[in-house]
Hints:
The chain is of the alpha/beta class. It has nine helices and ten strands. β2 and β3 form a beta hairpin. α1 crosses α4 and α2 packs across α3 (58-66). Mean pLDDT is 87; it is low at 1-14.
Amino acid sequence: MNNDVKNEVEIKGNERPDPSPAVIRRLPRYYRYLCELIARGITRISSNELAHMMHVTASQIRQDLNCFGGFGQQGYGYNVNYLFAKISDILGVSAGFKAIIIGAGDLGRALVHLSMFEKRGVDICALFDTSNEAEGKDCAGVPVYSIDELEKFCEENQVDIAVLACPKHLVKDIAARCVSLGLKGLWNYMGVELEYSDKDIIVENMHLGDSLMILNCRICRNISCDDGESE
């Protein structure tokens, strides 16, 4: 790492802008790259060096981080461990969220096995079966309940997040039940668009098919360029 550490400008007091959805969506990238830096034993980094790693501009990084206070030191750059801790706090890694997965089919069972939840501070405490075929069993040590027990379980346990991996025709009904139970968030994997106002519940709609089609499109465009067609 070079010694050319740029001054990092922090916006003070009431001048700090509210983070846009685009800024929020970039934060997990900061988290991942900072993890990599820590693993490499790097303790400080400038916005220019971080920008080079992430393939963005240094100005973009400073603008993003200024939304939360900046975290840089004049003439020093960013303390990697400190910045990682702050980004982790912003992303709720230490918030101790409890989650349930609704849908005990192939997708739901696959999600239960992911270490991703634990690494990001989310505890999967139950799996709910909408067909009652797996009721009373467990998956990777997580108990499986009937969907009929959803209300009772959520009332007795402080559940924050529901991961929706249930059949599509049940998504809206189950989402409505989660809203009525006061859950804070839905992570919806089923390709059915859900929308609520922020005061009701926060929703992340995951469209895996969209991502696949974007990949297909980019491959097709590369093939077209290889054939001599212009962009």
